[in-house]
Amino acid sequence: MPELGRAALAVCLGLALYALFAGGFAAFTRRRRLAVSAQNALIAAFGAAAVASGVLLSALLRNDFSFQYVADHTSIELPTAYTISAFWGGQEGSLLLWLLVLTGFSAAAVAFNRRSGRDLLAWAVPVLGLVAVFFSFMLVAVSSPFATQAAPPDGAGLNPSLQNPYMMVHSALSSLAGATRRGLSRHAAGRSPRGRSWASGSCSARTGRTLRSAGAGTTRGIRSKTPR
């Protein structure tokens, strides 16, 4: 299982690199077929990120303590809901969540704009590929959630400060807010020559503010319930 996770991240990195360089070259030279190929690579990168996320989530739910990340952030007695939230309870899991959300939004941008926004999409793909390259490189070379060890009888458990209903959604909302703001803002900026940037930009700003407010609200709730 850890080998599958590592392989999926390596594939995701390769696809993101292809989307970055092939997409950038296609945008400069106006090669439509190459641009479509780069778009497909970005969609496939989301699939690879989803496979890696599935491997980690499966290891968490099975209490597979041979995964160092699982042993460091869960335990046998930890309730299932908090076991799932341990996915983003550490640095490696948070990076993987960011990669999953960003590639998911990138794949959605490609799927919904293939026909109506070809010129914009040609330039958006290498930018989105660059972001995906950063996160996938970090997960492959710097901070992998698929490091293994001799399995201990039990894990260290989740950080007590994270065992809070608010924290179960806080990181996910923050990731969603960041990805939404960046993706929609670029989409709005790309449409400015046609006079549609104000409406699209306002929509992206409102969406980002709403999601960030939700994340900030969870943080305030945690602080108000934390004993001093």
Characterization of the model:
The chain has about 230 residues and is mainly alpha-helical. The protein contains eight helices and no strands. It has helices spanning about 1-30, 30-60, 70-75, 80-85, 90-115, 120-140, 165-190, 195-225. Mean pLDDT is about 80; it is low at about 190-210 and about 215-228.
Topology:
Layout: H1 2-29, H2 32-61, H3 68-73, H4 80-85, H5 91-113, H6 118-142, H7 167-190, H8 197-225
Structure summarized in a few sentences:
The chain is mainly alpha-helical.
Main attributes of the structure:
mainly alpha; 2 domains; 75% helix; disordered C terminus
Shape: elongated
In angstroms, what separates the terminal alpha carbons?
43 Å
Helix percent band: over 70%
H/E element order: HHHHHHHH
**Helix/strand class:** mainly alpha
Mean pLDDT: 79
Strand content: under 5%
Gyration radius, in Å: 19 Å
Q: Helix tally?
A: 8
Number of domains: 2
Low-confidence stretches: 188-208, 214-228
Major β-sheet annotation: none
Tell me the total number of β-strands. Answer: 0
